[in-house]
Design goal:
The protein is mainly α. Helix content is 52%, strand content 0%. The protein has a domain of 60 residues.
């Protein structure tokens, strides 16, 4: 199926945004901010301000990343050579007669 002009433009925009995000090292900034949070002194007067600033920066970076580079949440399972999976199973049913319970015996 041929792509429409809109689909081609969207793919180009996504690719250029991926390049921009990788150049800006957004994921590395997240890791750096986490390390800064771990190194904060909880007894310092500026602790809450610094913590909130780093937390907000990480949240915003994650929002941008998730918007343009969504998590891949599906997996495709294929058989040999990319074909369909052939499932083979065998069920052995055993039917055993049961003597009915009389109402007087119960």
């Amino acid at each position: 199926m041929a792509k429409t002009r809109a689909q081609e433009n969207r793919a180009l925009r996504q690719e250029s945004l991926r390049e921009w995000l990788s150049e800006k090292c957004t994921a590395q900034h997240l890791v750096d901010n986490i390390q800064k949070i771990e190194a904060l002194d909880p007894t310092a007067e500026t602790f809450n301000n610094e913590l909130n600033q780093l937390r907000t920066a990480n949240e915003q970076r994650l929002k941008v990343m998730n918007k343009y580079l969504p998590d891949l949440k599906s997996a495709e399972i294929t058989g040999e050579g990319g074909g369909a999976i052939q499932a083979e199973h065998q069920v052995n049913w055993v039917i055993q007669p049961v003597k009915p319970v009389d109402a007087k015996d119960a």
